[in-house]
Every structure is written in C-alpha cells, then in structure tokens.
Amino acid sequence: MTAIARSLMLSPRVLILDEPTTGLSAVLTESVLNDQVRALADRGHAVLLVEQKARAALCLADTAAVLVRGQAAMPAPAAEVLASREMAEVFLGGPGGTAGPGTPGGGARPIGETGAEQS
What we know:
5 helices; 119 residues
C-alpha cells in the first residue's frame, strides 16, 4: 500500500497495478480490490489492473482485455467478458468455478479450442 501511495504522489495519468493481491489473505484481497482500487477509480484515477484473480478483477473493472499468447483476445466491457460462457470455461474454470492455470482441469487454452481434441 505504501508503494501505491508513493506512486500517487507523482500524479500519474495511469496507475498500473501488477497483481497487487499476490500473497494476500482473502480478507486483504477483498479490501485491496473492492475498497482501495475502486476508490482510486472513483476519484478519477485511471487504473490498469493486472490480476490473476480474474473474477474479482472483472467484477470491479469497467473494461477488460483477456490476453492469449500476448494478444488481446477479447477486449470488451468487463461485464461482457464476465458473462461470456467461453471466457468462463476457458479462463475462469467454468460457471462459478475456480480452475485456472496450474489447477486440475484449468489452464488457458486459445479461444475457440475446447480441449476435446487432446488425447
């Protein structure tokens, strides 16, 4: 949090937060995302958030860009990305799921690939 405060002293046009919740408990993660990041945006700061906790980030974002192999696969309003069945299956572990890279059944696949062709 001190790093964010120090950055704000420079009056940046865009504040880039690269995984600010890494290593935090669920309670602190919720505080950082829902209280602090949202408050920054509400005060008019442009915030670029890079976050592994995709559902939480999408719930507070206005716009999202899902990257696949370094390319924006679905730049769209965050609510649209969150509601996308394909995004949920590929990146969010299915509807309401938590699978992701490194978890059984999770991992990023290119958009349009179902994984059925793997044997």
